Amino acid sequence: MKSKAPFSALPLSAAQLANLASLDYQEMTDIQAKSLPLILDRKDVIAQAKTGSGKTAAFGLGLLHNLNPTLFAIQALVICPTRELADQVAKSLRQLARHMDNIKILTLCGGSPMGPQIGSLEHGAHIIVGTPGRLHDHLARGTLDLRRVSMLVLDEADRMIDMGFYDEVVNIVRQCPKHRQTMLFSATYTEDIRKQSAGFLRQPVEIKVESFH
Ligand code: ADP
Ligand code: MG
Known about the structure:
It contains 9 helices and 7 strands, in the order ααβαβαβαβαβααβαβ. The protein is an alpha/beta fold. Strands 3-4-2-5-6-1-7 form a 7-stranded parallel beta sheet, sandwiched between helices. The relative contact order is 0.19. Magnesium ion (MG) binds next to helix 3. Residues 36-207 form the Helicase ATP-binding domain.
């Protein structure tokens, strides 16, 4: 079932609409149509939809729209369960930010040497995409400052909990300001995730899409 919801129904810039057209994103997927109005309105959301349903652009368009371009500080943090997923998310965000000047998106994952990551952090970034272990390491060393984060995304939250990252995620979330927007994305939403994430979210709106598109 196609949603037939145009991106132009959203309060996105003309430049972003043109960028989406150039990426051949012709209309919103169901999860995008249901979550983006809330995300752009800075609401906390719990969004559940299958793999491949377009969750990255749902939070990505929200992060980029709500970013303060005049503030060069880490304003958004996306936590992903694996390096591969973090790389994919960063790549998608860079595509979605193609029309924006100088938006710096940095990935922080294990398997890459610490030194260059610390160097990149010293140069600054607007958005960090990372895995729990490495984010935790940077926080422990004092090389990552999350005090200006206003948007937090927990991507593939079900997998992060299954992979045993819960304690690290809690520690990272604690370093973010309390006054922020938190978005949890997951393919499944079990009672376990509900309980574990309850403390992270403020009056979240739950969105669930059953069908593929
Ligand atoms: P999920 O995170 O839900 O598993 P992704 O965000 O990785 O899904 O998106 C899956 C694929 O769909 C990606 O290749 C992405 O570029 C594409 N996609 C996302 N939204 C749209 C859209 N509105 N129109 C066309 N393609 C889209
Ligand atoms: Mg995804």
